[in-house]
Design brief:
mainly beta, Jelly Rolls, six-stranded mixed β-sheet, 2 helices, 13 strands, 11% helix, globular
Length: 191
């Protein structure tokens, strides 16, 4: 489990090993504010190769997804996001740990999610967030399962969320585990 010591108490729930939550600080005056989102000297494993700005409608749920190779790095700009995490790495000290944490744009933080930690995002209100990735998009590195599969151990505050076509047709957690193991084996062969 990784935390930045200055993280507020509300951000110290137990998270999967390697997930980093960093409190971000604003500085400014009456005319503007500046928030540092990323510094190369921060101790995280996400050298961003691409940044994305995403706006989600209320009641949208994205995921649950897991990556074999790439890290995600994100920060909520406005609105709020309920982040669900599930550690799928058999060698991790937090293997199968599920956790959820609420993040709000008015309390800026960054979240780094390592490969092998499945994640889903629920947006109860209109939300804008920035996210970066450590590798360019590759469909072989983009695995997923149904958002409400009970084996994830995640409890979402919605029964019928807005889903992308891909997320609506996602397979079971058991199928994700098999696909993740196979993809991890292939990735190890190419390393």
């Amino acid at each position: 489990m990784s935390y930045i010591p200055s993280a507020p108490e509300s951000l110290t729930a137990r998270l999967p090993d390697g997930v980093v939550v960093r409190e971000l600080h604003d500085r400014g005056d009456h005319a503007s504010r500046t928030t540092e989102l990323y510094r190369a000297d921060w101790p995280i494993e996400v050298p961003p190769v691409q940044w994305n700005l995403v706006s989600s409608r209320p009641s949208t749920l994205r995921g649950v997804h897991v990556h074999v190779d790439h890290w995600d790095y994100l920060s909520v700009v406005s609105g709020e996001m309920l982040l669900g995490l599930h550690d799928m790495r058999p060698r991790s000290p937090t293997y199968k740990l599920a956790a959820q944490q609420l993040f709000q744009g008015k309390l800026p933080v960054s979240i780094a999610i390592p490969p092998g930690v499945a994640h889903g995002f629920y947006f109860g209100v209109t939300t804008t967030y920035l996210y970066a990735v450590s590798h360019y998009w590759n469909p072989a590195d983009e695995l997923g399962c149904r958002w409400n599969d009970p084996d994830l151990g995640l409890s979402w505050p919605v029964a019928d969320p807005l889903l992308s076509p891909r997320d609506a047709g996602a397979s079971s957690y058991g199928e994700l585990v098999r696909a993740f193991a196979a993809a991890t084996d292939r990735s190890a062969l190419h390393s």
